[in-house]
Amino acid sequence: MSSKKLLPLCGTLPKIIYLLTAVVLALNFSCKDSGTGPEEKKSVRDYTWTADTLTRAGSIQTLMRSIWGSSANDIYICGHNDDIYGNIWHYDGKEWEYIDSTQKLREQFGGASYQAVHGTASNNVWVVGHSGTKPFILEYNGTSWKKHMVNANSRVYSVYAVSKNEVWACGADGIVYHYDGSGWDIDTIKVSQSLGDQYNMFSITKVNSTIFAHAAVFENNSSRDRFYLFEKNNEVWTKVDSFVIDSQNSQWKWGANHLYSTSFGKLYAVGFGLYEREGNDWVTILPQELASFRGFRDKGKNNMIACGDGGSAYHYDGNNWQEINALHGKDLLYTGVWMEEDEVFVIANDLSGYPQTTIVWHGK
What we know:
CATH architecture of the domain at 67-250: 7 Propeller
Distance between the termini: 61 Å
Helix content: under 10%
Largest sheet: 4 strands, antiparallel
Oligomer: single chain
Structural class: mainly beta
Number of strands: 28
Order of helices and strands: HEEEEEHEEEEEEEEEEEEEEEEEEEEEEE
Shape: globular
Strand content: over 45%
């Protein structure tokens, strides 16, 4: 047994309290004086960028046009490949691989055009497109791909998944597809058109509780194009806006390439310029003279990216829009962007020669 005696607490307690207090204060002042704290978040403009080139041996065109991911380790892109392989690619955090699990579907969709991908989770991914005029809608449930049968004969151009039980798609001839978890309903939105006019629904999205769809009519016997914005509330589709591009007007009212629902509950449109829907009107965010934009994403009001033709990619940091110089390339056509808090993926078609390839820029 130890021969040391225990000191009476009553005589030493004040000293112990004093010493502990001094130690705590010293540590606090030491931390403050060191100047160390939480690391400041890096801006997209300061990211380091690496590039992956997607192509297949023997293919002369690998041109991806749409991107979506559930995380930086689970990203899908889709588009066109001339040899019918490599229409859908997946990134697992290490490398890109084209998906060959759709082999049975290729028998039906040889030469198919894959138009868009969207989802809500790693087990809820949707890809749409067409073979000729025949539409197809594909679902990935985390294990396998499934083809959904739709009773229509019109191409599909856009898809937007709200949940596993709410998916919207749209395409040629004013057709809108809605999936409720068990089956597909089909609506047709009518507009005035003449024989030979082309009428297409190019983009669909949901903002808060409202479905928005963008459409265009290309008149057959003139250089006049008409553009429409529709919204659906209480099961009724309503035309809420329109404009015309012709010899008398070259000013775009909103972007005619894609509609996007932002994380802060706003409707954005990209095309010749970037636009925000404000009430019943549009606010120009980036002017049409700057570029024809095709891709847009945000991670809040102070972190947005828009990209498009001519190797143009712009970032908003809450203060201003600035081109991302590291991504500039005149022979690149940017078609889509996906971003997380600390990583960004931008897809570009490299049209500088043959084979034509897709470049995926990865910034972090």
